[in-house]
Write a structure and sequence with these properties.
The complex is a heterodimer of chains A (303) and B (64).
Chain A (H helix, E strand, L loop, with lengths): L11 E3 L4 E3 L1 H18 L8 E5 L4 H12 L3 E8 L3 H18 L3 E5 H4 L5 H8 L3 H19 L4 E3 L4 H13 L3 H6 L3 E2 L7 E3 L7 H10 L16 H15 L3 H12 L1 H4 L8 E2 L6 E2 L5 H15 L1
Parallel strand pairs in A: 3-4, 3-6, 4-5, 6-8
Antiparallel strand pairs in A: 1-2, 7-8, 9-10
Helix pairs in contact in A: 1-9, 2-9, 7-10, 7-11
Chain B lengths: L1 E4 L2 E4 L6 H7 L7 E5 L4 E2 L11 E6 L5
Parallel strand pairs in B: 1-5
Antiparallel strand pairs in B: 1-2, 3-4, 3-5
The chains are: A alpha/beta (303), B mainly beta (64).
Chain lengths: 303, 64
Amino acid sequence: MRCAVCKKKAEVYLPHHNLALCREDFIRFFHKRIKKAVDDFKMFSEEDKLLVAVSGGKDSLSLWDSLLKMGYNADGLFIHLGIGDFSKRAFEIVKEFSENRKAELIIINIKDEFGGKTLPELVETTKGVPCKVCGKIKRYFFDRIALKENYDVLLTGHNLDDEAAFLLGNIFNWNIEYLAKQSPALPEEDGFKKKAKPLIYLTEREIAIYSFFNNIKYNELSCPFSKKAKSHLYKESLHQMELSLKGLRIKFYKGFLRNRKLFEKAEKNYTLKPCKICGYPTSSEICGVCKIKIKAEVSEGEK
Amino acid sequence: MKVIFEGKEFEIEGKTSVKKILKKFKADELFYIVIDLKNKRLLTADEQPDNDTIIEIKKVMSSG
């Protein structure tokens, strides 16, 4: 197989693009896909100060690596969740990544913010659903740090497979409001900074190839809580269907992007106001994270 | 040739294509990458690795 661009020996074949590429042309292809998403959805410009939420996984690290190589001003934000070896390994990887590239990394340790409690301890004391508690806490700190440190755009490493799986889940559950909000880029509003997902045109396989070619070490340990996550089930289902219906994920997601306006009219059935305790935008009197803090403290007092 | 798949090592006799190896392990090209560990490069499905090659078939789906 020969590279479609330079005719050298190809190292990868991308079935849904029907494209064979050598290493160098694949890396160029990858950066072009990011640039296309950035331009298509007016995500950010070269002057913007970007904050990349990094987990230690291949998606967020490949995104950060790409943005730095493409000349953007991008810093990283890592939330240390305290989930045993999983978080320990993720932290080591992210720290090494930022040091090797001399890139700025902001670290938030859950234990420092929740009176010495780790995420598993917070889940236990609040009797919450792990992925919901984790998501709530991560979103909170992503938003707060982006605002406090005056970043222009907050970026996440969600890829095409993630977005197609979210979409499937939102349709299965007819979460019209979530469908209205599922966007590659969300504007700055209601006290939140602008958010964007520059990897929406790239599959997990393409990201794995990019991380291999660029020698990006990433956390291969599984989060012990993620086994029960419904998003994995949706992703697996789409993969199973894709085996018989080639290109299904892309058609499904791109079709949604073309028809997103159908859901935009979905009215918000809430208004946001500042949390009475911390000031974070919330639809109730007290935000979800402050509620977790209160519950955790109450449980501790009951012991 | 040696094949590493899901952390286990397998021996494959004779020359064969990556496509056939993937089929043997029921691993679709869409969700796996095939790494030539010695030469630190990826292999496409049409390639026929040499007998002394060690390859890893790696699943690309993240697990959380």
